[in-house]
Amino acid sequence: MAQTGFDRRRINGPEQSHPPTFGTQDEVEGRWIVGQPRKARKPMDIRPIFLQPGLIDQANGSAYVETERTKIACAVYGPRQTKSTAYHEKGKLNVEVKFTPFSCERRRAPMRDAEDRSLAVAIHQALLPAVQVELLPKSTIDIFLTIIEADGIEACVAAGTVAASTALADAGIEMIGLVMSCAAAVVEQETWLDPTEEEARSARGSLVLSCMPALGTVTSVWQSGKLRPEEVLGCMDACQERCSDIHSVVAQALLENA
Amino acid sequence: MSTTTPTTTSVLSVLSPAEQEALKAATFQRLHPRVYLERFLAENVRPDGRPAEGWRDVSAHVGSISTADGSALVRLGGTTVVCGVKAEIAEPELDREGEGFLVPNLDLPAMCSPKFKPGPPTEEAQVLSDRLNEVLVSSGMLPLTSLCIHPGKAAWVLYVDATCINYDGNVFDAALIAMVAALKNTQLPKATFDEETGRTTCSRSIKEPLQITRTPVSMSFGIFDSTTLLTDPTSFEEPLLDTTISVVVDSTSGALLSASQLGIDATAAQDMLQTCITAAAQRRHDLRKIV
Fold first, then answer.
1. Cα A236 to chain centroid, rounded
2. pLDDT, tens digit, 9 for 90 and up, residues B154-189
3. Which residue among A82, A137, A144, B151 has the highest number of C-beta atoms inside a 10 angstrom radius?
4. Which chain B residues are closer than 8 Å to A10 by Cβ?
């Protein structure tokens, strides 16, 4: 991997280094092959969720979410005064996502790509309709997410949204409902919920749906890949159903922490 | 004044007497941190209930991150640091043909404390990364020659990245424990360099641990008001300290690897440093079980 600039603010390694290449003769065993049923889970099953609100002492609200290999920590700071002097009638919701360098298969050198930015936008879009920003003039709510380990970018968006919404509730910020999120991928003709990285790679198309199960409203849909309209609607229905299950998990976790 | 007083009393009256007292104490702590700490120390206790020479609980979990070649999560009281090791292959430096690389970095993201903002590493993160690098290199815990695959052609680069999840003081000690534990947890695939093709191939099945010769652990102390020695300071105590002392020892042999003092030289500092080294020698036994 070519290093474009020498960063004086960090300890630097050699100018060029590349991840290890493995011999072809010993392939990883047990890889999914086209035509086989889904491994490890049923198509409509999601990974078990572990959710812990309030682990960061100095944050106004925080949450840690773990779904098997996906691990995300989230902190909410605010509402606090906006730095700029211009008057804003509505509060500003600021979402920042950071990948740890060891979170993916390939090392993520700091500040090399824009994937964290696109993730932040997706989570911001999902949360904004729920947060009552009109009650917080001149203020900013900062949501910081650190991805400790990632297993599929769609699952990261979904888990990140759930973590952020839990942290907002933990911070006592007024929302009209808790935002839940679920991902789906279409592999061959089948819909698989909560795809892992490997599953997403073999998928034809994928979708992330964020909604407020308490109100029955959808806040954001992010679809990519080649899917027929009826497949998209099928995925959305499946995701929405699963979101109400996740909602009860989050509500339970928040009650236990209160 | 007449308009604000009724609202203040109405807000306070919602709270129970105990909550009102807690709010008063929190306000006093925020406005007069130094006096707040002084009053606690006058009673021979610290705000979190420890005596001046008390340590916080340490715990470590290793190997929970599957995308890293080695990983550790360390908690030191409230401070939480997660560290992952990623191994890559590079050509060795021309003047050090038979050596690999060890690249430690500590990140203090905006998530872990309200005092950090998003963006490039803060001054504190840069200083801590540099000190960690110094300790890992100078202690010789991992001979760089053991990372060589083929002299002059290929060697391992170990990126040791630590991230702070929760900042509650003494991040240096926690980060060093996390880095050492992650390195001990690291397994490298067996690599072979093909002289004809000039390529390095690794085996998926055969993995080997690193040849670690030492396990450095650090113990930090702070001097408050040039008289009181506070062990393992928290994030509330840290900004009030005149001097910070860090003692790094090898947890297995007890050999002193480094001692550093940052801040003004108080009159009794000579004795203080000696006290710290003695205390560290005691403490290393507890940390040895963790790492």
1. 17
2. 899 999 999 999 999 899 999 999 999 999 999 998
3. A144
4. 105, 121, 126, 129
